[in-house]
Amino acid sequence: MTSATVATTLLMGGFFGLLILKIPITFALTAASIATAMYLNIPLMSVVQRMVQGVRSFSLLAIPFFILAGELMSKGGISRRLIDFSNLLIGRARGGLAQVNVLASMFFGGISGSAVADVSSIGTIMIPMMKQKGYDADYSVAVTVTSACQGIIIPPSHNMIIYSLAAGGVSVGRLFLGGFVPGVLLGIALMIISYVIAVRRSYPKEAHYTRAQTIQITKDAVLGLLTPIIIIGGVVLGVFTATESAAVACVYAFFITFVVYREIPLRDFGRILYACLKTLAMVMSLIAAASAFGWLMAYLRIPALATEALLTISQNRVVLLLLINVMLLVLGAIMDMAPLILITTPILFPVVVNVLGMHPVQFGIMMMLNLGIGLCTPPVGSALFVGTAIGRISIEKATRAMLPFYATMVVVLMFVTFVPDLVMFIPNLLMP
């Protein structure tokens, strides 16, 4: 074998081997990068410089702000208000609480941008409430976990910022706008399948609200719903950049949480900052490690080799896109989202964008939805783990209940993959 082949085997094999041994992803990426650099006689200082360079990006400043804004809004009572508002809009349908669950996740996804945060905030309220009203536990968990995927693609999403970095600077604003229609379509599709199952199982409807209750619930929810409007509106109108919009969202979330709602005391702000700091430390260390790993992949021409390998399988665009979707779905089931974005984007981007002609924004949304489905899929789906813990059921039982929801999500994924205007219409209209 040539030295390049040995180095490639050492880099990729070492990484996956360490993952099998349950080494944390950040350490696996770093160890594989260092071992490969030593084999190639590359100075280790170059690896360190690449790690530092990976996190020295102005765009990445948006990530801590979005994490903090989402944490503030989730702890400050916004979840309950969004659930009440969703119940007001659609709770009177058959299986109303399931519809409320999906719609509340759609609203909350536009604030937190995180599927796990969505399951934690919405699920802790909705799953016990649904079980109390006579809904089966597995159905309640299935609806909650799958609807949380909307938070990955409905703007704003900090995973889109990571993709923008990995893809070489795709417009974050256009990514945000590109996720709007697919996110809403996913929500509608999940509401339809939830309704079909609810009718078959004769789940109950929710009661009507009085006029006074309607006005009060709407007033309470509007302030929280303004958060994504401020973020996206400011970016589209050119008032501020995506990074600056995250800071504005943080200030607004702080004001709403501690001045308007005042459900938690100001002394809890320290605990919120601590939770954000732990999340941020994991994200930024992961980005640093993946930057060195990606640099070595480029050095060894792994993306070019992957392109050649895929094109030897088939020259048909549809076959290749289906193959890439299957690959991402499988990888999403065994690895977490952020490292997959950082590792697979440099490999697949040349094939999908340069060879198959897909727009980078469309590819980004396609990847987000693929990996979002992975968050609901065993054995590593973090959203699934949180949902089953809240619902107190086994992963096997929840997975069986989610099969029709998985099928629905895959149908939406096919629309995103093969109907470009579904993603590109709003970005082309508002940010041409």
Walk me through what this model shows.
Helices cover 80% and strands 0% of the residues. The protein starts with a helix and ends with a helix. The protein is globular, with a radius of gyration of 22 Å. It has two domains: 1-42; 43-430, no CATH class. It is an all-alpha fold. α15 packs across α18 and α16 packs across α18.
Please outline what is shown here.
This protein is mostly helical and 432 residues long. The protein has helices spanning 3-20, 25-39, 44-55, 62-75, 78-90, 96-112, 115-132, 137-147, 150-153, 158-166, 172-178, 180-201, 211-236, 242-261, 269-299, 302-313, 317-334, 337-355, 360-374, 382-391, 395-418, 420-430.
Helix and strand arrangement:
Elements: H1 3-20, H2 25-39, H3 44-55, H4 62-75, H5 78-90, H6 96-112, H7 115-132, H8 137-147, H9 150-153, H10 158-166, H11 172-178, H12 180-201, H13 211-236, H14 242-261, H15 269-299, H16 302-313, H17 317-334, H18 337-355, H19 360-374, H20 382-391, H21 395-418, H22 420-430
Helix pairs in contact: 1-2, 2-15, 3-15, 4-14, 4-15, 5-6, 5-13, 6-7, 6-8, 6-12, 6-13, 7-8, 7-20, 8-20, 8-21, 10-18, 11-22, 12-21, 13-14, 15-18, 16-18, 17-18, 17-19, 18-19, 19-21
What oligomeric state best describes the polypeptide chains here? single chain
Distance between the termini: 49 Å
Characterize the largest beta sheet: strand count, sense, and whether it forms a barrel: none
Radius of gyration, CA atoms, in whole angstroms: 22 Å
Helix content: over 70%
Count of distinct structural domains: 2
Average pLDDT for all residues: 84
Spans of at least 5 consecutive residues with low confidence: none
The strand count comes to 0
Beta-strand residue fraction: under 5%
Estimated structural class: mainly alpha
- SSE succession: HHHHHHHHHHHHHHHHHHHHHH
Number of helices: 22
Spatial shape: globular
